[in-house]
Amino acid sequence: MGEQSPESGSKTAKKTKRAAGKKAAAERDTASATAAAEASKAPARKAAKKSAAAPAGKASEKPKVKPRAAGKAATGEPSAKKAPARKAAAKKAPAGKGSAGRAVVAAAGRARKPAVVPERTTVDVEGTAPVKTVATRAPRDESRTALVRRARRINRELAEVYPYAHPELDFDNPFQLLVATVLSAQTTDLRVNQTTPALFAKYPTPEDLAAAVPEEVEEILRPCGFFRAKTRSVIGLSKALTEDFGGEVPGRLEDLVKLPGVGRKTAFVVLGNAFGRPGITVDTHFQRLVRRWKWTEETDPDKIEAAVGALFPKSDWTDLSHHVIWHGRRICHARKPACGACPIAPLCPACGEGETDPEKARKLLKYEKGGLPGQRLKPPQAYLDAGGRPAPPLGAG
């Protein structure tokens, strides 16, 4: 009665074995789930440890972005410090949403660009050397009409100061004026006037000078400087006058400029003062003053002649040349203009470049005829030139 049959025993063992297998499978599932949960919590724990290690008060601060190096900024190479920032952004993104995580990283990268690029650009702009400009009182946006009026008023003022302006070379005929003008290059008119009397006494005509011995002419012209070149010029132009023009100085610009050593400046001096034909003499004084007065910005003598000639009627050209040259020699000097004694100071854009104190400026006034080169006068004071003609006072007031 208490005994079990073999069949019932085997069935019981099978049931027990199946129950044990199910229990083991359940335990394995539980263990794997626990391991997965632990693995998913690991990044959060690491982030918690980093935040705990950070100093107090700086956990919420955004990482400072330093400007990229010049080479990396130019080539677009990513900075070495971008990688940690991108990893942190990827860790903060929720699991299973890779596209959202990439969007966060991309947004973080875009947010840093304005902090880098403008800073670099600002440094480049501020570090660039500024363009150097010369501070002047030139009329701003002066119209053509205003320029013409101002230029003609300057000429009228100078005509009152220098009413007897004339060529400061001594001559009795066109030939002497032509030779004296050629000799005046790179020297003073006073020096030429001291030299030409001996030259014209020995060679009074073009035929005489054309037949002269060069060595003898060189000895006479030695005080003028560049005497060998000037000797070749005066002998050459004398031969050309004798052979081509019958010993007479031509009265046309086209003929004069063909003579050796004669350019447009020399030709206009001869035409204006020996033949009464208007011309503008663009010497060094004329060039300096018309640029100071902002009549033109040209530097080539021919272009200066054309630009200034367009501001005045042709009948004024010869006297205008004398007024400007006289003013440049007496008051508006190259190195230190006597601005304080200048009668046209209110019309001059460059007023103030020189001495503005009236008393000091008066001491800078100069003249040549009737004294040593560079001798100073106490203006106003009149003097007589070598021909006995009166000359104007050399000052304002």
From TrEMBL:
Its EC number is 4.2.99.18. Residues 12-21 have a biased composition (Basic residues). Binds 1 [4Fe-4S] cluster. GO terms for biological process: base-excision repair, AP site formation. InterPro entries: DNA_glycosylase, Endonuclease-III-like_CS2, Endonuclease3_FeS-loop_motif, Endouclease-III_FeS-bd_BS, HhH-GPD_domain, HhH_base_excis_C, HhH_motif, Nth. Residues 31-42, 91-113 have a biased composition (Low complexity). PROSITE patterns: ENDONUCLEASE_III_1, ENDONUCLEASE_III_2. GO terms for molecular function: 4 iron, 4 sulfur cluster binding; class I DNA-(apurinic or apyrimidinic site) endonuclease activity; DNA binding; DNA N-glycosylase activity; metal ion binding. It comes from the Bacteria. Keywords: 4Fe-4S, DNA damage, DNA repair, DNA-binding, Endonuclease, Glycosidase, Hydrolase, Iron, Iron-sulfur, Lyase, Metal-binding, Nuclease. It is an enzyme of class 4 (lyase). The keyword 4Fe-4S applies. It holds the Pfam family HhH-GPD. Transmembrane segments: none annotated. Residues 1-113, 368-397 are annotated as: Disordered. Its cofactor is [4Fe-4S] cluster. [4Fe-4S] cluster binds at C332, C339, C342, C348. Residues 183-330 form the HhH-GPD domain. It catalyses: 2'-deoxyribonucleotide-(2'-deoxyribose 5'-phosphate)-2'-deoxyribonucleotide-DNA = a 3'-end 2'-deoxyribonucleotide-(2,3-dehydro-2,3-deoxyribose 5'-phosphate)-DNA + a 5'-end 5'-phospho-2'-deoxyribonucleoside-DNA + H(+). PANTHER family: A/G-SPECIFIC ADENINE GLYCOSYLASE/ENDONUCLEASE III, ENDONUCLEASE III. DNA repair enzyme that has both DNA N-glycosylase activity and AP-lyase activity. The DNA N-glycosylase activity releases various damaged pyrimidines from DNA by cleaving the N-glycosidic bond, leaving an AP (apurinic/apyrimidinic) site. The AP-lyase activity cleaves the phosphodiester bond 3' to the AP site by a beta-elimination, leaving a 3'-terminal unsaturated sugar and a product with a terminal 5'-phosphate. Belongs to the Nth/MutY family. This is Endonuclease III. It comes from Streptomyces cyaneogriseus subsp. noncyanogenus. The lineage of its organism: Bacteria, Bacillati, Actinomycetota, Actinomycetes, Kitasatosporales.
